[in-house]
Design brief:
The complex is a heterodimer.
Chain A: H1 23-26, E1 29-40, E2 43-54, E3 58-62, H2 69-76, E4 84-89, E5 92-94, H3 99-104, E6 107-110, H4 122-126, E7 133-134, E8 138-139, H5 141-154, H6 170-183, E9 188-191, H7 200-215, E10 219-223, H8 227-233, E11 236-241, E12 244-250, H9 256-264, E13 279-295, E14 298-312, E15 315-320, H10 326-334, E16 340-347, E17 350-351, H11 357-362, E18 365-368, H12 372-376, H13 383-388, H14 392-395, H15 403-416, H16 433-445, E19 451-455, H17 463-478, E20 482-486, H18 490-496, E21 499-504, E22 507-513, H19 519-526
Parallel strand pairs in A: 3-10, 3-11, 6-9, 9-10, 15-20, 15-21, 18-19, 19-20
Antiparallel strand pairs in A: 1-2, 1-4, 4-5, 7-8, 11-12, 13-14, 13-16, 16-17, 21-22
Helix pairs in contact in A: 6-7
Chain B: H1 2-13, H2 15-30, H3 44-69, H4 77-93, H5 99-134, H6 150-170, H7 177-200, H8 206-225, E1 232-233, E2 250-251, E3 255-256, H9 257-275, H10 277-287, H11 289-294, H12 299-325, E4 327-328, H13 336-346, H14 358-377, H15 382-400, H16 403-412, H17 419-424, H18 431-447
Antiparallel strand pairs in B: 1-4, 2-3
Helix pairs in contact in B: 1-18, 2-14, 2-18, 3-9, 3-10, 3-12, 3-13, 3-14, 4-5, 4-7, 4-8, 4-12, 5-6, 5-7, 7-8, 7-12, 9-10, 10-12, 13-14, 13-15, 14-15, 15-18
The chains are: A alpha/beta, B mainly alpha.
Chain lengths: 539, 448
């Protein structure tokens, strides 16, 4: 059993055959790929990609969805084992037989969906499958705890190694994954979308750990959709487009826009829209919304005294840290929140009873959930079936489905939102993330809602599709829908919103107009500690 | 390439039917012949017998398919079927307010009243919404009196009263065929409603709720039957009405009566799954409960209805059991739930829910029926039959879930050639497996 935590120091003590000289001395690549190609069922995912990684560098891999980032990473980490082209580790050609093989050679990958066992402690997770034993039979839990503690402390992570993973926040779970990879003596660490579920402060902690690792000689590859992050963290960046490498360059001298245009192959201009004068009666009013849920540690107040108005044609953004109650506001309005809810919801000035999503749908409210795969789509069904699902009842007569009307609805949606699919009978899981998201939004538009609730509408979708979603939101608002957007991405929030409501620990700490809303101001209101002050004025 | 692939894909999509054809072929080849040289397996008599024998399992499997498509499971159907057979036999053979009548009559009254009430509401809603759609309006604004609560409730009460009067009129004498066919499924349906309520409102896992009902229904059956736990014999013409024989007769000398029930159930519920919103919701919930719930689907109602339907069909199966075996006994259906689940699974319905259908279940039931028929014609020990059933289940599921291709490639030490295609596609059928499917089936049959 090797000692945990020596990973940081181990970067110079290599075990790989063929590593005659330390790559740090040579400054050469620890991991190189040349002419790597890979196709899935006749569709090329990577075409002759060259890639090199230096010791101690942080290398960002960017590109639109389907550009081949994940595929390249998975080939380098031994997840995909059949591919064309060559991979060299420390200058010696290697061909990993699988993930374990790669891990033995010091290459570890952290997937976007974390592979932790929620019911085990952080320490148990770190040593899962490699537990130190007493007398060869009994798991030495004391040693696990001590080793994990040492490892986490060396990484500067403040997590109790004996807390259950389920109780940790996503950001903390991510750090446990990193600790696990390092306990394997990983010298090359790959992270697929490590920040997609993290709040800004959690990102900062992650970045700190990453920089520290890089300084200790660990080579790191990560993918991200957030360009700001790439600029802040990476030393070099490789841009992929349609399975080909477009660019590899040091981050200095590259602007944000240069990266984006390399990704999409064209120039994209973020388009603001004129702030529309809020007009007429509010379509949705929330008064004194309070929500309590039962968690692991008993009753917990998730929302307290949230009140706001949403007018027709207005886009209201909700900002705040992860866990500040943003999603819960949307779920409470939609009747989907778990727990005890009080307060009043008015639709068009009339008090509305919303006890279930069914009620909400009937009142013309639509919710596009944060996690489209788990909660938004029937992944194994066709585009047609997904598009028609909320409308099946309305399109039927006497409970008999109107197949022709359903098909017309789906065709209409595909055309209006320009969903890229072969036909409406394509299985929805085979679409790209952006197109899946369009299907989720489209299925709701078909119900002709008055209020559209968008929870992280562009999470995990590529830059081009993001722009399309923004344009769609603007178009819908100008047609008179009231839209509420929750987003962790500050630029997105500022771009979309006419007003921004900021949440902190379940309370609303302020409502900012577009003129007032700046990144700094939102962060100030969202940071815990200020939340105890009197809540900001209601809209 | 496409020249080979397209037919292979068709072959693969229809592999279940090829399996059925294969079993028929094997049956015909291995079948003993009569002295005049006729093939016994292929004789009309034999084939209709098979259809008759599978009817009870088939009815239960029909309900089970809906529950499994929904992502649930119903373990109680065997016991409910046994319990229903006791109720049915007691109603047929004993006059007066027996325990069976005391449970059956109120159950029938309440279920009929509720069913008619909801149906009326549904129809009136449909009528009015039809008008809304024509007028180009989607959202219901005005609730007419017909769409409110009162008129459907009145209609329901009237129907309930009629049902009660009809059932009660049968009590002093013994129950007739129609009355039994009405009351027994209604009794079973009540048990299904308890299942549904426990799962939907009590948030019990389906496995646990129906397991409890499986045990309880056996107890109810034994208590109802009396202290001796014995079977209640039904001799039509002596202790029960002779008309009851109609349920075991041949219709126009062509099709056995139980099979008619089975076929009707398959067709009816097949159509419901395919053409109605209820069917759509069943698949949607099985595919992703969360997404369905957040799309405004009334998940609880659909789940409840599925468990009710499942037990109702089990009750109907109980009546057919009494007709077939001339007795009602509490443990008549022990193991039946597992047979039904096996038939559903062989038919390609995923236990995870959301994928499959009744056509598959129909074939699955027939494969089982034909298999035991072949083995019986060969005079093979019944314990071997059990073994064979097990092999068939494993074999077909291996083929369906594409596990075979993966296993084979792992043995060869090479990465699965199917893997990338599988990742990108959720289609159950893959060309390569069709060929393997038939090899597996041949292997199994060579051993017999």
């Amino acid at each position: 059993m090797h000692e945990a935590g020596n990973a940081l120091a181990a970067s110079n003590a290599r075990r790989t055959p063929g590593a005659a000289k330390s790559p740090r001395e040579s400054g050469g690549g620890v991991l190189e790929a040349s002419g790597v190609s890979k196709s899935f069922g006749g569709i090329a995912a990577l075409v002759g990609v060259d890639f090199d990684l230096k010791a101690g560098e942080v290398h960002a891999l960017v590109g639109e969805n389907g550009a081949g980032k994940s595929t390249l990473m998975k080939i380098l980490a031994g997840v995909h084992v059949d591919y064309d082209g060559g991979v060299r580790l420390m200058g010696a050609p290697v061909k990993f037989a699988g993930v374990q093989d790669a891990e033995r050679a010091g290459v570890a990958i952290i997937h976007q969906e974390l592979d932790l066992v929620p019911e085990l402690t952080a320490a148990d997770n770190i040593f899962l499958g490699r537990e130190p034993l007493i007398a060869g039979m009994i798991v030495d839990r004391r040693r696990i705890a001590r080793a994990a503690d040492r490892l986490l402390r060396r990484l500067g992570i403040e997590i109790d190694p004996l807390s259950r993973v389920a109780e940790l926040r996503v950001g903390e779970q991510q750090l446990v994954e990193i600790a696990k990879a390092l306990s394997l003596d990983a010298r090359i660490l790959m992270m697929d979308e490590p920040t997609s579920a993290l709040s800004s402060s959690e990102c900062e902690t992650l970045f700190k750990v990453v920089r520290q690792l890089a300084a200790a000689g660990v080579a790191i590859i990560f993918t991200s959709h957030r360009i700001d992050e790439v600029v802040a963290l990476a030393g070099r960046v490789t841009v992929l487009r349609d399975g080909r490498r477009v660019l590899t360059a040091p981050i200095q001298g590259l602007t944000r826009n240069a990266i984006i245009s390399a990704m999409v192959g064209r120039n994209l201009v973020a388009t603001h829209r004129e702030t529309v004068e809020a007009k007429g009666q509010p379509v949705l009013s929330v008064r004194n919304l309070t929500l309590d849920t039962v968690g692991v540690r008993g009753w917990r107040r998730v929302l307290e005294g949230v009140s706001f108005d949403l007018r027709r044609g207005e886009i209201l953004g909700i900002g705040g840290l992860l866990g500040s109650g943003r999603t819960e506001i949307l779920e409470s309005i939609f009747g989907a929140a778990r727990g005890w809810r009080s307060g009043q919801i008015l639709i068009d000035g009339e008090p509305a009873v919303i006890n279930s999503p069914t009620d909400a749908c009937r009142l013309g409210i639509a919710l596009v959930t944060e996690d489209r795969k788990a909660r938004g789509l029937l992944l194994a069904s066709t585009v047609r079936d997904n598009a028609a699902l909320p409308s099946v009842g309305a399109l039927s007569r006497f409970g008999i489905r109107g197949f022709a009307r359903e098909a017309a609805l789906a065709d209409d949606m595909v055309e209006r939102l320009s969903v890229r699919c072969s036909d409406i009978d394509q299985i929805v899981s085979t679409l790209s993330g952006g197109n899946q998201q369009k299907v989720v939004i489209g299925k709701w538009l078909a119900t002709e809602p008055q209020v559209l609730l968008l929870d992280e509408p562009t999470r995990g979708i590529d830059v081009g599709a993001k722009q399309e979603i923004y344009q769609l939101a603007f178009a819908l608002a100008s047609r008179g829908l009231g839209i509420i957007v929750v987003s962790s991405e500050m630029p997105e929030l500022l771009l979309l919103s006419d007003r921004v409501l900021v949440m902190c620990e379940g309370r609303q700490t302020g409502v900012l107009t577009r003129a007032e809303a700046t990144q700094e101001e939102i962060m100030r209101l969202a940071a815990p500690g200020l939340g105890q002050r009197a809540a900001g004025g209601a809209a | 390439m496409n020249l080979i692939r397209a037919p292979l894909r068709t072959l693969s999509r229809t592999k279940l039917y090829w399996g059925l054809a294969l079993i028929c072929l094997i049956g015909a080849l291995l079948s003993p012949v009569t002295s005049s040289g006729a093939n016994i397996f292929l004789s009309y008599q034999n084939l209709t017998d098979v259809l008759r024998q599978v009817s009870i399992t088939g009815l239960v499997a029909t309900g089970m398919t809906i529950v499994i498509l929904l992502g649930g499971i119903d373990l109680s159907v065997g016991s409910v079927m046994g319990c229903s057979s006791v109720i049915c036999a007691m109603l047929l053979t004993r006059p007066g307010w027996t325990p069976a009548a005391m449970m059956g009559v109120p159950a029938a009254t309440i279920s009929i009243a509720l069913a008619v009430g909801f149906l009326a509401r549904f129809v009136f809603n449909g009528l009015a919404r039809g008008r809304d759609v024509d007028a180009g309006r989607r959202r219901v604004i005005v609730l007419g009196p017909w769409r409110g609560f009162r008129i459907p409730a009145l209609l329901g009460l009237a129907a309930g009263a009629a049902a009660a009067a009809f059932a009660a009129s049968q009590v002093p004498t013994k129950f007739g065929v129609l009355a039994v066919l009405l009351v027994t499924p209604c009794f079973a349906l009540t048990l299904g409603a308890i299942n549904g309520a426990l799962i939907v409102e009590g948030r019990l896992q389906p496995f646990i709720a129906t397991l409890a009902m499986m045990v309880s229904a056996l107890g109810i059956g034994r208590l109802t039957g009396g202290q001796d736990f014995a079977v209640i014999p039904v001799y039509t013409g002596t202790n029960a009405t002779e008309a009851f024989d109609v349920l075991r007769s041949m219709v126009w000398g062509l099709v056995p009566m139980p099979s008619i029930f089975f076929l009707l159930a398959i067709i009816t519920f097949g159509a419901i799954l395919r053409f109605t919103t209820f069917g759509r919701y069943v698949y949607a919930i099985g595919g992703n409960v969360e997404a369905a719930k957040l799309s405004g689907v009334k998940v609880k109602q659909v789940q409840f209805a599925a468990y009710v339907i499942s037990c109702m069909l089990a009750g109907l199966a109980g009546v057919l059991f009494v007709a077939q075996y001339r007795q009602g006994k509490p443990d008549a259906g022990s193991g039946l739930e597992l047979d039904a689940i096996a038939a559903v699974v062989i038919g390609g319905t995923s236990l995870m829910g959301g994928r499959g259908g009744l056509a598959g279940t129909f074939v699955g039931v027939l494969i089982f029926g034909l298999l035991s028929d072949i083995l019986q014609l060969q005079n093979i020990d019944s314990n071997v039959q059990l073994l064979m059933k097990g092999l068939i289940i494993v074999g077909t599921v291996l083929v369906q879930e594409q596990n075979l291709g993966q296993l084979l490639s792992r043995w060869r030490g090479a990465p699965s050639a199917l893997a990338p295609a599988r990742a990108g596609s959720v289609e159950p059928a893959r060309p390569l497996d069709a060929a393997k499917a038939s090899t597996v089936r041949e292997d199994i049959h060579e051993k017999t």
